[in-house]
Amino acid sequence: MNALLELARALCDEAGLEPSVVPDVHLRAALKRRQLICGAPTLEDYAARCVARPEERGEILDELLVRESWFFRDQAPYELLTALASTRWCNQDRPLRALSAPCANGEEAYSIAIALAEAGHSLSRLQVSALDLSQRGLKAAAAGRYEARALGQLPAPLRQRWLIPTATGHYLVHAALRECVQYQHANLLALPAALTAQRYQVLCCRNAMIYLRPAVRRRLLEQWMSCLADDGVLIVGHAEAALMPSRWLRPVGPPGAFAFEHAPVDAAPRRNAPPQARSAHPASRPPPQGPTRRPVAPAPLAEAAALADRGRYAPAAALLEQLLASDYDQVEALYLLGLVRAAEGDVAAARRCFTRALYLAPAHQASLEHLALLAPDGEDSAAARRLRRRSAHAAAPE
Ligand SMILES: C[S@@+](CC[C@H](N)C(=O)[O-])C[C@H]1O[C@@H](n2cnc3c(N)ncnc32)[C@H](O)[C@@H]1O
């Protein structure tokens, strides 16, 4: 089992996943499932099969990737896209470019195409690219055939215009819509040059960054900054909005759209101007501008965040414990300590930190998200779902 576990861990590492997101119990369960599917009598037999068939690596990875998605997820981002497509992007002769990265089973990419087309843009002018690491997801995306529950928040009139009900109770995306989306297999850690050479009006990177290691997430954000058109929007997931650096990006649209555009400052990293690596942790970011300005992050917290970002967990934890023993911003310190403990592999201690942060600030979204990921019975358990519901509620506009 050890060699198999090592293989599964290496695959997660290649995908950039934060180790605490995929605990050993998940890895073991995924390997067991594959063993049964392959009909291998024992795990040793299955391990031998993995050596003989390198393509089995992709199957294990697919077993670990979470492809949960649905049409018009969160709704507000798509309403914003339709609004921008009929105002900001209406008078241009170039194609309207969008990227869905990652796209899971294609629900997001088709939703983007629908939202843009609904503003009156002809399908021939839409160029939607989409990528994912999951081969199973990409196969489903290309087929464009969905169960009713995948239609999620897609309004009924749009469903009638863009999807065709089948005799088996599924829904098939219109051929013309399928043609304007190009899918490809790619890793967010090594984006193909052909994709990064473009500039996109719509860049969707939702519900994936939260699972990535902080350093990977930072590099990816820098990449997105250079791919985002000057008049473009970057849309992220609700738990990711708090991770966006206000120095580079400012919110656009209603809060529930989790959409951002280039901030009008010189420091924003653009094409041909590679940015300095910056911490994704709130404590080391500058405060937002305007009426919502918060106090400048206190230096020791920023210092602890910087240590943690460099993988120096022991000194980061020591500094945070020291801060917690004093009269300090307890919530952010507890949250950061939770991240550090999870990175060290001490899941129980991480849970205690996030729980204490939530005791002080029940709507602290990042703690809710992380606690859900670390739920004792797995991230799909009832407890995890309850935490995610609380998190979604915390993110919902007033
Ligand atoms: C929860 S889904 C999000 C799908 C969609 N963006 C949404 O918000 O509905 C996360 C997706 O990220 C993909 N993924 C995870 N790590 C990846 C990586 N390193 N490169 C590309 N895709 C990745 C998974 O395969 C999965 O389909």
Structure description:
With 398 residues, the chain is of the alpha/beta class. It has helices at 2-14, 24-38, 43-52, 56-64, 76-85, 107-117, 135-143, 156-162, 175-179, 193-196, 214-227, 299-309, 313-325, 330-344, 347-360, 365-373, 382-395; strands at 96-100, 126-132, 145-146, 163-165, 171-173, 181-185, 200-205, 228-236, 249-252, 259-262. The chain is globular and about 60 Å long. It folds into 3 domains: 2-64, no CATH class; 76-262, Rossmann fold (3-Layer(aba) Sandwich), CATH 3.40.50; 299-395, Alpha Horseshoe (Serine Threonine Protein Phosphatase 5, Tetratricopeptide repeat), CATH 1.25.40.10. The protein has 17 helices and 10 strands. The chain binds S-adenosylmethionine. Residues 15-16, 65-69, 73, 102, 104, 108, 132-134, 137, 187-189, 206-208, 237 line the site of S-adenosylmethionine.
- The count of DSSP E runs of length 2 or more, i.e. the number of strands, is 10
Structural class: alpha/beta
Q: List the quaternary state of the chains.
A: single chain
Strand content: 5-15%
Rg estimate, integer Å: 22 Å
User: What hetero molecules are in the model?
Assistant: S-adenosylmethionine
CATH H-level homologous superfamily name of the largest domain? Vaccinia Virus protein VP39
Give the CATH level 1 class of the largest domain.
Alpha Beta
